[in-house]
């Protein structure tokens, strides 16, 4: 796989669709610009209908952008048909050719490229080895399990040595356990080959596990782009915070500053958090608190009332009310901790540093 | 918001695919020239055929009592045949899906559903005359009635009903199988009796489908030419009136206007069926049956239903058997023994039977692969691709379904006998084998396209996309992915096209020249002349050929079809 890696650049890309019910046009993707670095693994993440699949299909060439230009490396590719683009896609439904066996499926792209027979054989076997399907080359695709079919689909995409690998929710048809092991596989193979990969999913844990960078999309626009850590710890909006992981939102008014801390009034309680640069006294702010970052104590934090207490095995799940705000939290390793019951009045405690101000 | 860039890019991508562009252009040319144009010329002729634009020709034909009578006759027959066929079809379908049958009755059902597919359209008229006519075996020899007339209204109704109800039966069977048994079980569980369940649950769910079956038969009946021709006697329908107007009265402008009237009737029916009832059927019966149905074992239900259906089925089969047997009697109606092959011999020695079979066979053999390939290409374009002219291609190929053969025949006469728009261009193809092949193709195209479309809809779109993504162009995708995946549909389309062509008569009878002898035209001629034994001999051989073709296809699919193995997935 000695090939120069290529990045993908989207410049002000839009795609307009017609709503089949109302007949009105709307932006499926709107003015989206992305710069995907060569060799990186980037995930487009978002709820259904956010435009992530449309974006991917525009990169593959199945859809044509209504505005903007797409570059593969430095080459504009808007006018190229999918078969002329140096990209290869792994489909949600695997889309293996059902009348071919594993070998012929993987060899299909090479045959189209008129690669000599011996070389086809060699390259196919090498790739099947990489995806751990050695010995399966004679099987028909319907004799394979879902996970194996997905490996064939991956091998087929890899064998033509594309500049960019595209994944369209490839794991969503697999069961939960297999999904976890396959995503590790995909990441391993991508790292081994060193190929640029763009991956579409609505599963946030998949995105976290796989990606160098996550692009969160909502209603056709990019909501945030960053490393998994950046997005998890520093979401830019309630939407992002809520979409990635669980999040509690505490609303409060900044009453003043004390050293590096901002003083906020939350449901009548005083709370000190690290002040972000943009904060000003007298304004309302929303604080993001992750459920695993908080715990319950008899006293010392924000006074609250337990409304749900539920044993989940590895953690105790609580819903508590701070004034009128519902806060969900997870007390991990609950075996030797005090368990609060519904109706108990106690205190919600957390490290002010683990709170993110929007 | 401007979608212009996306549209322009889509167009550029399409243009980068010359084979695809050429295919689309050729296809549009073909459809325009051989489906749209002949219909358009009918309109033109009937409005300006007299030299000036106006309704004068329509006024003239509507003043003919024979024509207005033909309209009422046609509608009356169509209506009754539609209702009877839908009801008998429903009964058959219900018995098959709901009642436990023994194997013999089940076998009868299968034969009944197969027969109309392989037999020429007018076989039942022949046997009707031979069984119940003046010299009919049943009327004259068993019952001693000497002057029974089967010609006319009832003759057409009975023959058409028996010909078309299997189509309703197959349609309704499919729908009944899709009703989730839990719905009916829920009603029974709540205390409804079997009749109540049928009336309150099954029937309402089935109603749009029943309406659909009725209309499909109605259209078939209106368009039917051969049966009214043979058994109608003086009871003329629109199709036969148009035929006589052009072959007997040489009134081409009048025939064109009549054809326009017939076309309008069928198009209206077709529009209702296609856009209203089909959508409704799909809306009420979407789910697949979740599991097997408890079959009715109750003898008081089972026995009468089974007996009735078995009798009807046996009767239909008897009528078909009557044809080859009729060809073996020395003189039908007078002398039955000893059985003789003299009619079969005469077919070949005296009446140029060999040429007739050769001509029919060769023309159908040429048109079948063209039809099959063309319908698969159309299906592929309609289901899998998007481009501007797609709507046109889809609409025109569907339109061909609603055009009665007689109308198309008149359209071809008017459209090509004097060249395009009577200018002499393309006049050369008129009267040749080529135009016959084209008519065969056009007449079979809708059936092939419909089956191709439904086969392709079941194939995940991303399979073709993946091949495209791997580097295949449209032509490669079609040849290496699409076609292999719908091989079964292609093969059956091939045979259906062959069978439809070799048994076709309505359009072809208007266009055939003495240079070509076609079996169906021969049969029609002999039946007209009253030489039923000869007609039967011709028809028997024809049935043998078509049945052989279907058997061959089934064998082929069983051994070479890939789709089975894919479907198991």
Lay out the secondary structure:
The complex is a heterodimer of chains A (358) and B (569).
Chain A: E1 8-18, E2 25-36, E3 41-45, H1 52-60, E4 67-72, E5 75-76, E6 87-90, H2 102-112, H3 117-130, H4 146-159, E7 164-168, H5 176-193, E8 196-201, H6 204-210, E9 213-218, E10 221-226, H7 228-233, H8 238-243, E11 248-258, E12 261-266, E13 269-274, E14 284-289, E15 294-297, E16 302-311, E17 315-322, E18 325-332, E19 345-350, E20 356-357
Parallel strand pairs in A: 3-8, 3-9, 6-7, 7-8
Antiparallel strand pairs in A: 1-2, 1-4, 4-5, 9-10, 11-12, 11-14, 12-13, 14-20, 15-19, 16-17, 16-19, 17-18
Helix pairs in contact in A: 2-3, 2-4, 3-4
Chain B: H1 4-15, H2 18-48, H3 56-62, H4 65-98, H5 103-118, H6 123-132, H7 137-142, H8 153-178, H9 181-189, H10 194-223, H11 226-231, H12 238-247, H13 252-284, H14 299-326, H15 342-349, H16 353-384, H17 390-402, H18 405-416, H19 433-457, H20 461-470, H21 474-485, H22 487-502, H23 508-511, H24 519-529, H25 532-560, H26 563-567
Helix pairs in contact in B: 2-13, 2-17, 2-18, 3-13, 4-8, 4-10, 4-14, 5-8, 5-14, 6-14, 8-10, 9-10, 10-13, 12-13, 13-18, 14-25, 15-25, 16-17, 16-19, 16-22, 17-19, 19-22, 20-21, 22-25, 24-25
